[in-house]
Model the fold of this input.
Amino acid sequence: MGKLIVKGFIILAFLFLISVLTVSIDPCVNAYVSPGNFYEQGELSISVINIADTIAPVELDIYTPSDSDTYPVIIFQHGFGSSIKGYEAISTHLASHGFVVVLPQMYPPGDFGSAPTPEEEATLGVQIISWIEDNINSHIPVAADTSLLGLAGHSRGGQVAYRMALQVAEKVKALAGVDPVDGLEMFGQTLAVTGPLTFDIPTYILGTGLGPIVVDGFLACAPEEIGPSHFYAANPPPSWLVTATTHGHADMIDEEDYTEFCPACVSEPPHECRDGMRSLTGGTIAAFFSGTLQENFNALAVLIDAGSTPVPAEMEMKYTTNDGCEWDNDFTQGETVYGKAALGLSPDTSYPLYVIDDQTEWTDGMTIPTCTQCISSPSTSFTTDANGNMACDTVIWQNAQVNPPLVYFDVVIDVDSDGLFDVGTDFLDSHIQP
Done:
């Protein structure tokens, strides 16, 4: 769904990301692409290689596929005071889907008092990127394509990943945060994200429903004002947000390293719900990086398929353009709204288009409703280009006017022209936040 001030038109949250997410890869390199089924372990066997801090800037655990091929690189930053050993399940999951995953131990685990500042940690992280570029292929049995670099991190590690990306945006092809937490000003820290971000990097945020709950009357593990929604609101399109509504800030940590301090999920046996969270975390991150680093665009559908998640989750995304074909996420009354999407439909063909009131639920076969809040009339059809896609100058809504002046709305392409919403056939937009 979109929102009108006219706020946030996101179109077609299915398999249409080719035009924006294409990554340059040497055509002579036959790089591995995951076959999918992302919530399950991938098909590749994995080995773990430890690099001592006498060789690299810090101690590294490298999770690498054993099968000879070329793979993108993901650097995963641990949370505040955490050990990289607590992310073994997630890292193994990612590597099994075709990534070389590097976990740097940025400082001794549990040493909260002497931990570096987030700024210092990010500067060290950038040095690690340089070391990886120069050295990783002499330490692993496969080919790591360091030009296809993804950054990720949990908790404060998510903030560190963002700081690293802001320092060397030209090197980062995709960025993910697992319940990320920005700088705590009450402790004298500064915010990494102070407003809308302008880098050209696809982003994915995984949040938790229990993360913002205050612990012992003091502080939440992922405070609402500096947590996942804070990062997501600042991300430029394309960006995805998945919220595990019944889970907590640390529920994705390995079971043997898990300590219950933050509010946590509940199940019997207790580890069962955390197993699901580890599956959600590994699966959605693998799908995101497969779509952005492996050019496996079908994988991105995982990030909007809330009906298939291993634990309850809500999903949102941003994907908008303005009249200059630039990504935009804020429209005002009277502005023209444009769409852009790689659809793979029949070329030079007209398809019905619906801009309608926000629907809380879409079911297969339901009649596509009308827009009762539209003052001006949205487009009722569009014509695909020579490649069967929606060109970026496609007008969705000329002089968009709504009543009341701040509303959500949905957009549907009725591919089979039957006036019904058909799951798997028609295209539907997705929710965004202001």
